[in-house]
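Quick check before the chapter quiz. The format below is the same one you will see on the exam, so make sure you can read both the input and the output lines.
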Amino acid sequence: MNWTEITATVPTDKTDEAAAIANMVVPYGIYIEDYSDLETAAMEIAHVDLIDEDLVAKKRDISVIHLYISESDNKSEKLAYLSERMTASGIDFKLDNKTVDDENWNENWKKYFKAFEIGKKLAVCPSWEKYDNKENRTVINLDPGAAFGTGSHATTSLCLEELENLVTENKKVLDIGTGSGILAVASALLGAKTVVGVDIDELSVKTAKENAKRNGVAENSEFLHGDLADKVNGKYDIVCANIIADVVIRLFDNVKDFMTDDAKLIVSGIIDLRAEDVEKSALEHGFNIEKRKTKDEWFAFVLTK
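Here is the expected output.
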């Protein structure tokens, strides 16, 4: 299958806002080229001051947001939506698009996905790399495939950091909008009794199942194709939803039906501009806000009934 790669070039100070708009176009994720802190990051992560010449040549004042749509999607409609929303948000932007096949598509994003650590217990490692586990962390071996969701984005890492605090061996976990399955797989690796992931995108469900098998947790993991929780049964001790603000707000209507009395609901994927809307809706639906977490202009909330 061929894909259309859409790139949005924006000023670095508008990256998060533009990324939030891009995430409304594709439910399975994006990747971002941002070299504004290249030198600092190189020292912090790799502890080196020698950087590849090609990287040194990259512009520091712009970011490039990459998103992919399938050949069955309406390219003109997606481009028009991006243009209208970014114009309305006052973002200077340039849109480009090109057709790529599956093989090239995979290689385009793989070069940006490297092993990294999250919180105190977790590490995420691409399936094609090896991770030197010096700190005896729980390692999630991940191949995002077309589902994306590598864990490197602030919204996902906020959820993972909270899951490592909440998941114990007796917990049942529901992951709504599972994508690559990273939150569900992490929960299973952290010791959850059972995990269920659900996604509206069939390819995401397929990828999540493969990642559960890759990490040896397929037996206590189940992945469903459906819209939000419409295919879900039972009650769960932890429910997580790393999606976007509008969908989180829609989820509040019935998510309590799937929560035990003392369950925790983790919602993320919320840009700071929409955090107040989500918080207001949560309170209106009878939730208590136990914790607010923020990272890189993104918010996550831990809610209880």
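If your answer matched, good. Residues 38-52 have pLDDT under 50 and may be disordered.
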